[in-house]
Amino acid sequence: QVQLVESGGGLVQAGGSLRLSCTSSRRASSSYMMGWFRQDPGKEREFVAAISWSGGSTSYADYVQGRFAISRDNAKNTVYLQMINLKPEDTAVYHCTAGPLYCSGLGCFEERRHPFWGQGTQVTVSS
Question: In this model, does residue 81 exceed pLDDT 70?
Answer without folding.
Answer: yes
